[in-house]
TrEMBL record:
Keywords associated with the record: Membrane, Transmembrane, Transmembrane helix
Database matches in InterPro entries: CarboxyPept-like_regulatory (IPR008969), Invasin/intimin_cell_adhesion (IPR008964)
Transmembrane segments: 385-405
Chloroplast in keyword set: no
Coiled coil: none
Tagged with keyword Transmembrane: yes
Name of protein: PGF-CTERM sorting domain-containing protein
Length: 410
């Protein structure tokens, strides 16, 4: 092969290799990835080696790295992501992850502190309390929120040395607060005591504007109270502090309601609203109606408001719907009891009216009266003058006869 051709082929191959290397390099590192240069230091600013880093972000990670002798590690993350970096070290700790917002290429310094532990014992008047709450805050940030064991104690995991706000309490007990300095392995005993506060329940019907007080409503707090509202719609109960309760309010004719109430360490109130159970009522203007006439009926809801468009039936046969005032006239076509019903929104009501004859009595009544008249035996008087005549009647008859004869003589 001529030397010129050989040289050209060599140059072409070199260009190909370089191009392939370039393309491969681009593909190996995503264009939206950035490198964070993370340095871990102690409270004096001294770099720490052998710190374990774990970086996570929404949809990414974890990326795990270990700091070198100079305290540095390189962490690749998505550009623009909010990255949380957790630090683990044999002798140092950080209570909260370090957050890099809107990540971009650059340096990040993370400070850690010497580690320590705290054992907290919670006691009441009866001795150590299990299931008591232990909360610890460092620089205003929550660090611990746990409960004591059966022996009333709780031991923290490794936390930063420093000053903490320590709060202990339990349902039904007042809170106890103190400042706890963690400078290694420390212990702290916290005493708490039981207490109750006054809670006022106010029950009203918000169908009205403004809402109206509901008297004789039953307020139930399981295991604590079962009371009834007074004339103002209120009732007060003493309840244990620092607890959450399910409060149920009921009253016949009303829909029940359940509210969640948190009671802290001062008097509080719960305003509960209820409404009447949806229903329809049916009322007739008359209980007795002459056959062939109509009776006017009115359909109302649970609050006495007219129900327009309610379907009205007589003895199971539709006679139409109520008007805008909830009224419908229903013909009464037969004697005796007539059932009238109304339906609206799946709710029904019915009444009974009596159909009577034109003389004012139902057919059954008229027949019974006629029968009694036909078969009855008149009572005769002792004078034999027929029914209704006694001695006084006879005297009157004689006087009338005498007066008539005198007039004829004149």
């Amino acid at each position: 092969m001529p030397r010129a051709h050989t040289r050209a082929a060599t140059i072409a191959f070199a260009v190909f290799v370089a191009s392939a290397s370039f393309v491969g390099g681009v593909g190996a590192q995503s264009s939206d990835s950035v490198t964070l240069t993370v340095t871990v230091v102690d409270e004096g600013g001294n770099p720490l080696s052998d710190a374990q880093l774990s970086a996570t972000w929404d949809g990414g990670g974890p990326v795990n790295r270990t700091t070198a002798g100079n305290g540095k590690a390189f962490v690749d993350v998505d550009e623009g992501a909010d990255v949380a970096i957790r630090v683990d070290h044999p002798n140092y700790v950080r209570n909260q992850p370090y957050v890099v917002e809107n990540a971009s290429e650059g340096d990040v310094t993370i400070e850690v502190a010497r580690d320590g532990r705290a054992t907290v014992t919670v006691e009441g008047a009866e001795g150590p309390l299990d299931n008591a709450i232990v909360r610890m805050f460092h620089d205003g940030q929550p660090v611990i929120n746990e409960r004591t064991a059966a022996d009333g104690t709780f031991t923290t995991p490794e936390i930063e040395q420093g000053n903490y706000t320590l709060i202990t309490f339990k349902e039904g007990y007042l809170r106890n607060r103190t400042t706890l300095t963690v400078d290694g392995q420390v212990e702290q005993t916290m005493g708490i005591r039981q207490e109750s506060v006054l809670v006022t329940f106010d029950v009203s019907d918000d169908h009205f504007d403004p809402p109206r007080a509901v008297t004789n409503a039953n307020v139930t707090v399981p295991g604590v109270a079962d009371v009834t509202t007074q004339g103002t719609g209120t009732v007060s109960v003493s309840m244990p502090v620092n607890d959450a309760y399910e409060v149920t309010v009921t009253k016949p004719g009303y829909e029940s309601v359940t509210e969640r109430l948190s009671v802290r360490e001062s008097e509080t109130a719960l305003n509960a609203t209820i409404q009447r159970t949806p229903a329809v009522s049916l009322r007739a203007d008359n209980d007795r109606v002459v056959v062939g006439e109509t009776v006017r009926v009115t359909v109302t809801d649970e609050y006495g408001n007219p129900v327009p468009g309610a379907a009205v039936s007589r003895a199971g046969t539709s006679v139409g719907e109520t008007d805008a005032d909830g009224v419908r006239s229903v013909p009464v076509e037969s004697a005796g009891n007539v059932t009238i019903s109304a339906e609206a929104d799946g709710r029904t009501a019915e009444i009974t009216v009596e159909g009577v004859g034109s003389g004012g009595a139902s057919t059954a009544t008229a027949t019974a009266t006629a029968s009694a008249t036909a078969t009855g035996t008149p009572t005769e008087t002792s004078g034999g003058l027929g029914p209704g005549f006694g001695v006084a009647g006879a005297l009157v008859a004689l006087l009338v006869g005498a007066l008539a004869a005198r007039r004829r003589g004149e």
